[in-house]
Amino acid sequence: MIYLKTTEEIEYMRESNLLVSKTLAEIGKHIRPGISTGELDKIAEAFILDHDAVPGFKGYQGYPATLCTSVNSQVVHGIPSNEIILKEGDIVSVDCGVVKNGYYGDTAFTFAVGEIAPEVKALMRTTREALWKGIEKAVDGQRVGDIGHAVQQYAEDHGYTVVRELVGHGLGKRMHEEPEVPNYGRRGTGVKLKKGMVICIEPMINMGKRQINQGADGWTISTADQKPSAHYELAIAIDKGEADVLSTFDYIDEIIKN
Length: 258
Ligand code: MF3
Ligand code: CO
Ligand code: CO
What we know:
Layout: H1 7-30, H2 37-50, E1 54-55, E2 67-71, E3 74-76, E4 91-100, E5 103-112, H3 118-137, H4 144-157, E6 161-162, E7 168-170, E8 177-181, E9 198-201, E10 204-206, E11 212-214, E12 221-223, E13 229-231, E14 234-237, E15 244-245, H5 250-256
Antiparallel strand pairs: 1-4, 2-4, 3-12, 4-5, 6-10, 7-8, 7-9, 9-14, 10-13, 11-12, 14-15
Helix pairs in contact: 1-2, 1-5, 3-4
Bound molecules: 2-amino-4-trifluoromethylsulfanyl-butyric acid and cobalt (II) ion (2 copies).
């Protein structure tokens, strides 16, 4: 069942999602060659607890950490570790969730570690733009398939592929609510969007083929061909006219511009 949120609930969800946005910016300050993903996880956990919230992922279906940190060919759900040291030229997709006042925030961003190859930069830019193509369609009266179609079209027009096994989702008192929000699809199909729905749109876009594998740890998803993958996620409230975007990359952009 799809839970429509009241105006008051949406304000709570804005608070949760802004906290995740700020947590990701805090992580952005620390991303550099030589830092481990385990250290990033500790920084995120302390930051969240310091802001009267709790990590949303820790304990979710047994997940052991505050962040998902997925490096290069890892698509999503990479588990942070003190043994995984970021190096110049890597990209790392950082996904973070919190619960504050009973409501989830869930947002993700792919960071560059030092200088990266131009073709990887292009993958990141297109993935982020594809997310916004989806957000443009996320309006009362449109359908979930309109979002997926817009994301897929944009990514494929740029020569990339779309991961299909993992999808966006409703967000609220639970991290994964209905409806599912695939990053591929056909216009005019699927659930009709309605004011009060809150969803996460989160394209996972691959430089090579779309196929993925699950790692031996039971969590880490990687591209089958080992080529890079990027992931950006924002939470939005459906409204009439245009989406009310509850999380933001603005704090991150402030940090990474220098
Ligand atoms: N945040 C992910 C998503 O965007 C889900 C993470 S599952 C977890 O839907 F177990 F790693 F927390
Ligand atoms: Co997420
Ligand atoms: Co999500």
